[in-house]
Amino acid sequence: MEVKQCDFCRMPYQSMGKRICMDCMLKLDEDFIEIREYLYEHDRAGIEEVSEATGVSRKSILYLLKEERLIVGDEHGRGCGILKCESCKKSISTGRMCESCKQEVFAAIQESVGAVRKPKRITQEMLEEESLRGVAKLQLK
Ligand SMILES: [Zn+2]
Ligand SMILES: [Zn+2]
What we know:
Elements: E1 2-5, E2 12-15, H1 22-41, H2 47-54, H3 58-66, E3 70-73, E4 83-84, E5 91-92, H4 99-111, H5 124-130, E6 137-140
Helix pairs in contact: 1-2, 1-3
The structure holds zinc ion (2 copies).
């Protein structure tokens, strides 16, 4: 096993191939269930509203978005600048990268030519700062 830094709480942990530690994984699962329940009743609720109603932190909500477990967007299904592609910074509605960057990375892996261009990491601070303005609505994926 490899010691890694948890992508969520930043503590070192014994990784078994996941980005986050067991504690955070369990916490995020709980948070996700709370949010899912709420969204069943209140489809397309705003992030602020969901956070307040469920007690789930914005940080968790953002992480669930990055994990593609939630989608955020305006009424046309476009991203609202809350999530950005980690490679080209285009606004996206779920996950870590936009479709074209995903395809680029996939193609690079397919060709297995040298190293895949590493996406620039967006820090939690940057995300938090950008986040939660505007009219973004959450949806279940
Ligand atoms: Zn953790
Ligand atoms: Zn991109």
